[in-house]
Amino acid sequence: MKNLLLEHLRNHRSSWSLGTFGALGEFLWDQNETLIIAPDDHLTVATDRGALRVDNLNECSAIAYETSRRHRDHWSQAVAFCLPETSATMNERLTITELGTDQNSILENNREATLFDLGLNTPYVDVCIRTSNPDLMTSLRALEGTNILAQDSPAFNEILRHHPHRVFISRIGRLEVFQPIGIEKTPEGPHTHILPKLLSSGLHHAANTPIPKDMIAGLMLYPSNPCVDIQGKEQAFDHNVHRAFQTLLNQHGLSDYVDEKQKIMTAIENKTDVENYPQPASKLRRLAARIALRQCAHLMSGDHVTNDSGLTYDAQSLQSWRTRFDRPETKPSSEQQAEFLETHK
């Protein structure tokens, strides 16, 4: 697992997140950006805009997965680094709490700054800000013990006025964002999201994320996507990127998911009548069928589709399969949830 982490920490096309549904820190770096800390043998990378460090891999499992996107020809892909739920719990603070100087900060020059837990009551991540600004410290100390999510709390306005560092900590590691908070739009590079309405759902991750119920993601990896670039803009399909993630999926994906993808691809190659193929027996298997068909459509060459195993599919037949197993999705139950999901590849 260490080699997997190092490979992607060294890759500027991979991005990362740490947090929960509604409160998230994201880290990525540009290929022309100077690395203050390069990911050598240590699982740490830092730039002038943010930093990421993996501290603990005990009990950690890597779970690779794919999910559908609203664009009918696209999908998301990720690797969740998970702990058993019983090992993933953090401090669950309910109110703004001063924690003292941040002696565990990734960069040494931040270790005399003061850390405040925002008290978002997030069970598996501590969401904090770090500051040396005397005005902000005075304001937050006056608000200590209060609920930042209360309607009349001035805390968020004070934070937005001073743009402190944001620090997200799990049992696996920590992610820090140094650059200013995006107010009118999400900035490029490391950034954060705190969305109170999504926090109120009590979910740790989005409902369509196929992570087993007894596992908690303490860190997320988003390897480069063959359909969209790191900013989420559509690009020409990248076959090499696709093959790389499929290899990772075969190593770390959930067995039912990987099995269903292979079964449906083989059925199409064998010219099985689509009506004779049984409906997948679970939500996870139905997702696998949908994603497999989307990927087949990108592997087309003329009137045929050739997958990475050399299997060839007829394009007209593929359309029949998509009509049955990849129908347009219903309107999301929450537009905010849909927006949040589309942000994270």
Structural write-up:
The chain has a domain at 2-225. Helices cover 28% and strands 24% of the residues. It is built from 10 helices and 16 strands. It has a 7-stranded antiparallel beta sheet. A 6-stranded antiparallel beta sheet has the order 5-6-13-1-2-12. Strand 1 (15-20) and strand 2 (23-27) form a beta hairpin. Mean pLDDT is 89; it is low at 331-345.
Concise structural overview:
With 345 residues, this protein is of the alpha+beta class.
Describe the SSE topology.
Layout lengths: L1 H8 L5 E6 L2 E5 L16 E3 L3 E5 L6 E8 L6 E10 H4 L8 E5 L12 E4 L8 E6 L2 H9 L12 H8 L2 E5 L3 E5 L13 E4 L1 H4 L15 E8 L16 H14 L2 H15 L13 H16 L1 E2 L2 E3 L5 E3 H11 L9 H9 L2
Helix pairs in contact: 7-8, 8-9
User: Ends: how far apart?
Assistant: 21 Å
State the share of residues found in helices, binned by percent: 25-40%
Residue stretches low in confidence (pLDDT < 50, at least 5 long) are 331-345
Give the total of beta strands: 16
How much is the average pLDDT? 89
Structural class: alpha+beta
What general outline do the C-alpha atoms trace?
Answer: elongated
How many strands, which pairing sense, and closed or not: the largest β-sheet? 7 strands, antiparallel
Strand content: 15-25%
Rounded Rg: 22 Å
Order of helices and strands: HEEEEEEHEEEHHEEEHEHHHEEEHH
Widest beta sheet: strand line-up:
3-4-11-10-9-8-7
Number of helices: 10
